[in-house]
């Protein structure tokens, strides 16, 4: 990765492939919905071209391995204000979206469903009509501009998790980020992952 907010992870491609296979081994015969690599495609612009190609290849490999186990897999596509739909669709296509169940949007973000569905619909038509899921755990204010991503005050929980979304392309609203979890010490919050009602 680029050593940013989510720094860490596998030491190299082979370690990552082993880790993915360990995850799938842990799932065993159970079925799951896997949201693959939040921010992985949206945040890859900081990588050198050969590193970007490697990331796309690793995500594609992960899609195949997870699908082979029998789980559903949605490749993360960032949020509606990060990467233009055409570019994100290109990244998804190169990362194996054709073999995935779809893509995910708004993970741990605050953008409302209206703008997120419009963005997802634009991407979908560029990737063969693939469906998507939306993280609604923090988007109840239905904002349309990105603003502060780290512990903005006055936010609200969005739609409860459901597969009855009322939109033909939206497979589910999910609470991927636990509502009320701090993003870290920014904005006066407690450590990342701790409850912060404000």
The main β sheet shows up as:
5 strands, parallel
Alpha-beta content class: alpha/beta
Strand content: 5-15%
Name the strands of the widest sheet in spatial order. Answer: 1-2-3-4-5
The number of helical elements comes to 4
What is the N-to-C order of secondary-structure elements (H for helix, E for strand)?
A: HEHEHEHEE
Mean pLDDT across the residues is 94
Distance between the termini: 31 Å
Strand element count: 5
Low-confidence stretches: none
Task: Kindly state the percentage of residues in helix.
Answer: 25-40%
Broad shape: globular
* Rg from Cα: 16 Å
Structure description:
- The chain has 198 residues and is α/β, with parallel strands linked by helices.
- It has helices spanning 13-27, 49-69, 85-94, 113-126, and strands at residues 33-36, 72-76, 102-105, 131-135, 170-174.
- It has a 5-stranded parallel beta sheet, covered by helices on one side.
- Helix 2 links the parallel strand 1 and strand 2.
Q: Quick summary of this structure?
A:
By secondary structure, the protein is of the alpha/beta class. It contains 4 helices and 5 strands; from the N terminus they run αβαβαβαββ. It has a 5-stranded parallel sheet with strand order 1-2-3-4-5, covered by helices on one side.
Output the keywords.
198 residues, alpha/beta, 5-stranded parallel beta sheet, 5 strands, 12% strand, globular
């Amino acid at each position: 990765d680029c050593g940013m907010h989510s720094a860490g992870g596998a030491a190299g491609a082979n370690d990552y492939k082993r880790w993915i296979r360990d995850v799938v081994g842990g799932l065993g015969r159970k079925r799951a919905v896997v949201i693959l690599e939040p921010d992985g495609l949206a945040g890859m612009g900081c990588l050198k071209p050969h590193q970007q190609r490697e990331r796309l290849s690793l995500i594609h490999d992960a899609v195949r391995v997870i699908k082979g186990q029998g789980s559903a897999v949605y490749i993360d596509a960032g949020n509606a204000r990060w990467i233009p739909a055409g570019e994100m669709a290109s990244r998804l296509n190169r990362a194996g979206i054709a073999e995935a169940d779809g893509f995910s949007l708004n993970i741990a973000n605050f953008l409302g469903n209206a703008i997120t569905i419009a963005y997802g619909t634009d991407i979908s038509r560029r990737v063969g009509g693939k469906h998507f899921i939306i993280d609604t755990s923090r988007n109840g204010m239905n904002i349309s501009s990105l603003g502060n991503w780290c512990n903005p005050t006055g936010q609200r929980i969005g739609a409860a998790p459901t597969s009855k979304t009322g939109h033909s392309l939206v497979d589910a609203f999910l609470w991927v980020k636990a509502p009320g979890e701090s993003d870290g010490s920014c904005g006066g919050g407690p450590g990342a992952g701790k409850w912060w009602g404000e």
